[in-house]
Fold this sequence. Notes:
11 helices; 15% strand; 10 strands; alpha+beta; 382 residues; binds flavin-adenine dinucleotide; four-stranded mixed beta sheet
Amino acid sequence: MRRDFFSEEHELFRSQFRRFAEKEIAPKVPVWNERGMSDRETWRRCGEEGFLGASAPEVYGGAGGDFLYDAIIMEELADLRAHGLMISLHSNICRPYIEAYGSEEQKQKYLPGAVSGEILLGIAMTEPGTGSDLASIQTRAVRDADGYVLSGAKTFISNGQIGDLFIVVAKTDPSSVPPHDGISLFLVEAETQGFVRGRKLDKLGLRGQDTSELFFEDCRLPASALLGREGAGFRMLMQKLQQERLCIGVASIASCRRTLADTVAYVKQRRAFGRPIASFQHTQFALATLQSEVEIGQAFVDRLLVAHVRGDEIVSEVSMAKWWITELQKRLTSECLQLHGGYGFMREYPVSQDYADAAVQSIYAGTNEIMKVIIAKRMGLA
Length: 382
Ligand SMILES: Cc1cc2nc3c(=O)[nH]c(=O)nc-3n(C[C@H](O)[C@H](O)[C@H](O)COP(=O)(O)OP(=O)(O)OC[C@H]3O[C@@H](n4cnc5c(N)ncnc54)[C@H](O)[C@@H]3O)c2cc1C
């Protein structure tokens, strides 16, 4: 169906990004998948071409466009299976915190570099002992005369090896009741003494993207590293999660489309019992069902994109999209792998990678169970 909310400028941007990505990103995907991380040069090239600042304010070097420009980037990267380059994490999950809550000094210091690709961003919430239950984090930031002393451990941090600046979630008041009122956010530069990068973790999927441990060993931060108000960290996180979950929905449905299109092409050429496997009614019904579900999912994502750009509060709806579409992606990649027979299990066939990559979608950015907790709460059930 025609997606008529994209303007001519959006479509022009899509063709520009696609041309760039086919030339400069796609050839690097196998290298990143092998090495377990992307490379700085590609990030810098993305910055140079204006692909890291499409929606950033003009005063900090961006183009001042809407979120749809960035959604286009997410869709095209998903289509190319370029998961190693997590532009949405950098531009749409991390940068908005600095834009929304940063002091003028913090914005001047970090935003132009984020837009140019010189400063790569990450966010460190999860710890070895807690992920979903964010209010139970143990990382501490203790105030003293010069600023804060940060200590603790984080894990599963995307861009952990390649990143330059991290939004770190820490407790400033561990005795606070409720506990989430004791949480604050800090901007921590990777150069800071006591900031230690741990292992780059070995993952089932998303192999081209680095996910790491981070440690803070009496890491001294100036008072100016605090982002927003002390104790307001949890609320700031909750306000920004709408966009994070929408990003997952956008990329997930685009990945479904890629896997499905490749599978349709495969079943038309693979033959069994003297005819293409596409001619079996089971194959037709399986793919017709998946195609219908993808269109239904896309229609919902598109509606959310329009509402998000309009500024609507759609926390419940993005939570619904996040769980429903990522569950669809997991089932779809499994069924498409099955339709490839033994070849589907071979790593040289992209569907095997799609199957592995899909697994994380229901886990990060808030697990799918947590999405249902949110929806249920907003239904007045808890
Ligand atoms: C590839 C990857 C990249 C990541 N990137 C980042 C990043 O950049 N920054 C970052 O901070 N984190 C990141 N994460 C961490 C991710 O957000 C967490 O893994 C996720 O929030 C779940 O936390 P957990 O792993 O501690 O699981 P747990 O919280 O221990 O959950 C285990 C299981 O219990 C269920 N569960 C927990 N609480 C409830 C409940 N109340 N009701 C019902 N079920 C419940 C969960 O749904 C899950 O199934 C990343 C993770 C991965 C795998």
